[in-house]
Amino acid sequence: MSHNGHHGHPEREHEREQEWERPGDGRDPMDGAALRRLLQGAVGDLEPAPDALERLRQAVPARRARRRQVAVGAAAAVILGATAVPVLIRVATTGATEGGHSANAASSHQRTHEITDGRQDAGGPGAPGMRPIGPDGRTHSEQEKGERGRRTTTTPGPASPSSGTPGTPPTAAPTLVASSPSCDRNQLGQGTGTVGTADKDGRIYGAFRVVNVSHSVCAVSGSGVVAARPQGNAESSRLTVIDHTPGDAAVGLPDPATEPSQVILQPGQAYEIKFAWIPAADGGPSGCAKTTAPTPSAAPSQGAPAGAAPQAPGEQQTQQPAPDNATAAKPTASVVLTHTPDVGQPQAADATLPDACAGTIYRTGPLAAQPSQ
Amino acid sequence: MAAGTTVDHLTETYRAHYRSLLGLAALLLDDTASCEDVVQEAFIRVHSARGRVRDPEKTLAYLRQTVVNLSRSALRRRILGLKLLSKPMPDMASAEEGAYEQLERDQLIKAMRGLQRRQREVLVLRYFADMTEAQVAETLGLSLGSVKAYGSRGIAALRIAMEAPV
Q1: Which residues does the annotated region (Disordered) include (chain A) (predicted)?
Q2: Beta strands A367-368 and A263-265: pairing type?
């Protein structure tokens, strides 16, 4: 506080008097010293809000996590590009053997679940360098550290119990401070995914919606996981889920700056994760009409079972609509998006992007959903 | 541990500067209602950017700079409009009503608010935050000459306003 005290640096004091001020005649209310005194006095009684420091202690890590999320999301996109070839081999070769799910050879069902859910298995051998970066760009440990351990049902700090917020307005309130416990996984349910119709460029917007099915108020603050799972001829190696950032291609999503740091859910209220599917630039509406996958190893990803997949020319097949009666043998491309809440599995909702093959999914964090109907 | 250091640094900075920054915001803003929000947001911004808190010497400068920027009305409106900040007023209104109400009545504050924004900013940084003219110039992105000019005109205007019978 000495910075603001009345004892300015002697030299500066001198400089001031010379430059700006009349010599004080004792009555002038506006010499430098007087002004300093008046300014100090005017605001001297202001006190920080009682919970000011506590709010900062919560808000700083949360903001930092947001920043990291954006940064890592961008890095993940780069890594995805760089590792496309090996991953293509690893993931794509097994796509057909497990009913079109991208999974590793020899992986159990459990493994499949973990991988498709993103970073759940960050250290696991099945996902080296590739999927461990969650679609929202953070690891679990970071998130837990960063956003005050939402896995626990009670929020540390000054948070009051849920009984303390009966006065919150009827719509989900994104901006109330952390006064509600984090939503447990079992408080979240009735998940639904909706997908709009594709525009002429194949862009599709949609949303996941997850309801607080419990009888108490709780808060959702982590972004959770949005994972993409290729179906049919979709190319798992060319599917990327990243956070929506200003200036990206998903212009229809809300500005990330408007995203609340958490969404408080009254019983029956829902949060939404919005997403946008932007097909790969050179691939027509589905994203891979003329794929540029650099190596023949892309071929097995075409998904035809039992060696029916041709080699390199296989990419062209993705353009050909499969006859209905042949769907089982040679499914058309689509992408299933799944959402798993930040507090953990199981997945809460899924949505299918029809005619989606290769591209990028941009996603938001949890937003307060409008009441349904 | 980085996290530990950060929290300590946050607390330390809070203790050392929060109140004075609150004053800074109150003097710069033309509505007292946003003071605490502006200071909170400044703390959050500065402390969530790791690079910015490495040098504690500079933390105050960053904080002041951010408060100045946020205090400019367009930015502030944007923040408040976006409701990036939670729970803006209720607490403060009840706990600090006295001080803020008093502020509203303060003759000097009224006079300060009558100044042009630049003049007010220069005077507040120069006299309340006790910066040198060079620091003021840097903070406001002005030339030294402009700082001198705004400062002397601001003082003159303030003198007249304070002597006015109203």
Answers
A1: 1-33, 98-200, 284-351
A2: unpaired
pLDDT tens sequence across A3-18: 444 444 444 444 444 4
Residues of chain B with pLDDT under 50: 1-5, 7, 83-96, 166
Domain co-membership, B111 together with B99: no
- Tell me which residue range forms the domain holding B160: 106-166
Alpha carbon distance A40, A45 (integer Å):
9
Whether A34 has its CB under 8 Å from any CB of chain B: the answer is no
Name the residue type at position B66. T
How distant is the Cα of A222 from the closest Cα of chain B, in angstroms?
16
Other beta carbons less than 10 A from residue A25's beta carbon: 7
Q: Final residue of a domain: which of B88, B105, B122?
A: B105
pTM of the model: 0.40
Mutation target vs B (from A2, A39, A145; most B CBs, 10 A cutoff): A39
Quick one: which H or E segment has residue A239? strand A239-243
Q: Provide, as residue numbers in chain B, all residues whose Cβ is less than 8 Å from the Cβ of A177.
A: 86-87
Contact A42 B109 (CB under 8 A): yes
Cα A240 vs. chain centroid, distance in angstroms? 13
Helices (H) and strands (E) in chain A, counts: 7, 11
Give the whole-angstrom CA distance, residue A298 versus residue A233: 11
* pLDDT tier at A88, thresholds 50, 70, 90: low
- ipTM comes to 0.80
Neighbours of A355 (CB within 10 A): 19
**Final residue before a domain boundary, out of B105, B128, B143:** B105
Q: Which two tokens stand for residue A266?
A: 């009254």
* Alpha-helix runs per DSSP H in chain B: 2-28, 35-48, 50-53, 56-71, 73-82, 90-105, 107-114, 117-123, 133-140, 144-163
B78 in the same domain as B115:
no
Kindly determine whether residue B10 and residue A57, on different chains, have CB atoms separated by under 8 Å: yes
Shortest distance between the Cα of B9 and any Cα of chain A, in A, equals 11
DSSP conformation class of B124: I
CB-nearest partner of B128 from A40, A53, A63: A40
A42 reaches B (C-beta below 8 A)? yes
The CATH number for B166's domain is 1.10.10.10
> Closest to B91 (Cβ–Cβ): which among A29, A32, A51?
A51
Nearest chain A residue to B107 by CA distance is A42
**For residue A88, what is the enclosing H or E element?**
helix A84-95
Residues of B in contact with A175 (CB under 8 A): 83, 85-87
Cα separation, B36 vs A100, in Å, equals: 54
Nearest to B27 among A43, A45, A48 (CB): A43
Q: Are A358 and A291 in contact (CB under 8 A)?
A: yes
A5 touches chain B (CB under 8 A): yes
3 state SS of A242: strand
